[in-house]
């Protein structure tokens, strides 16, 4: 166990040294490659305009998302209608997804109650 811990410490130290050595250069490279996205003199007005552009761009994408949603619903309905043709792996993936959703719901409930199982704090 001690040797495993030593190996982990050595690997983390070498990784942090690599980041310290190459991180600044990578940061400068990314900024240089994307400099056309950088506003030279950011002002409050420009930031507000960009936020409005983002909002209305997202709003404009809603009809396409709505259409995609209904296509997915129709696909799911067809799968349910022809459930005798389902493969075992498709059933397994669906069961795993349902179990994961249920688990996240339960964890969210526990967090919402203040990390108590019964809802009463002692």
Can you put this structure into words, describing what you see?
It is a single chain. With 122 residues, the protein is mostly helical. It has helices spanning 2-33, 44-60, 62-81, 88-112. The protein starts with a helix and ends in a 10-residue tail after the last helix.
SSE order and pairing:
Layout: H1 2-33, H2 44-60, H3 62-81, H4 88-112
Q: Report the portion of residues in β strands.
A: under 5%
Can you count the helices?
4
Shape: extended
Radius of gyration: 25 Å
Helix/strand structural class: mainly alpha
N-to-C order of helices and strands:
HHHH
Q: What is the residue-averaged pLDDT?
A: 88
The share of residues in helices is over 70%
* Strand tally: 0
Cα distance, first to last residue? 37 Å
Question: Main beta sheet: strand number and arrangement?
Answer: none
Provide the low-confidence segments as ranges: none
Short description:
By secondary structure, this protein is mainly α. Helices cover 77% and strands 0% of the residues.
């Amino acid at each position: 166990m001690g040797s495993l811990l030593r190996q982990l410490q050595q690997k983390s130290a070498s990784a942090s040294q690599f980041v310290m050595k190459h991180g600044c250069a990578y940061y400068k490279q990314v900024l240089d490659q994307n400099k056309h996205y950088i506003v030279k003199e950011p002002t409050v007005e420009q930031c507000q305009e960009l936020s409005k552009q983002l909002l209305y761009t997202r709003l404009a994408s809603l009809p396409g998302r709505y259409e995609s949603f209904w296509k997915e619903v129709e696909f799911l309905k067809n799968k349910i209608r022809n459930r005798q043709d389902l493969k075992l792996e498709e059933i397994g993936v669906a069961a795993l997804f349902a179990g994961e959703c249920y688990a996240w719901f339960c964890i969210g409930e526990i967090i919402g109650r203040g990390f108590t199982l019964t809802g009463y704090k002692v």
